[in-house]
Amino acid sequence: MPRKYTLTGCAIALALLSGCANAPDSGTDPAPATASAHQPQRDGDSSLWHVEGSATTLPEDDPDVIALQRAVALHSAAVDNRSADNVEDTLEAEYQHYSDGFNRMLEDQNHRASTEALYQDHELQTRQLGVAWTTSSLSADRNRAVVGFESIFEFTAGDETYLDERELELDERYAQPREITLVRAGEEWVIDNIEKGPLRAAATLGP
């Protein structure tokens, strides 16, 4: 059965600014960021990782956990450190992390062109400030994982009218919760789906 993707009808770059888990198409105005100082918290002795469908936890030094977090961090660095000047290069880096099926879905949505237009037309620039990992799971056969995290970033440049209409401010910390599904492809992990929650103002990087 063909893989069913949940981010249909959207571009990932637009999802970043839209604040929707199932993001709208490019004709829909993004929702304003919501104000909150909350950050993910956990017991220092607990693990954020578990085996899917069970109570079994995984240590943070598990080889697959390390590889999965590295793949997600590299993808997030490409997506969240983007500007009108480097958008083409960061798109190339972004696409290297996707499965064939997810690549095809983005191509069908004209993702590259819409992302380039978004950043170039509005002179946008974002800078990632950090990543806060949240609850994540790995399938029992270790072929599929869902990684939860929040990306924390700021807008360092952008068209004033565009930002004002979306109640966004330059040099203010924003956080966005994300769940990324990855599948094993040989020795590598590739991204097969992405879900994103709403942007919110984040006062600090820590709890």
TrEMBL record:
Region Disordered: start-end pairs: 24-49
Keywords assigned by UniProt, alphabetized: Signal
Highest taxon of source: Bacteria
Signal peptide: 1-23
Name of the molecule in the record: Lipoprotein
Organism of provenance: Zhihengliuella halotolerans
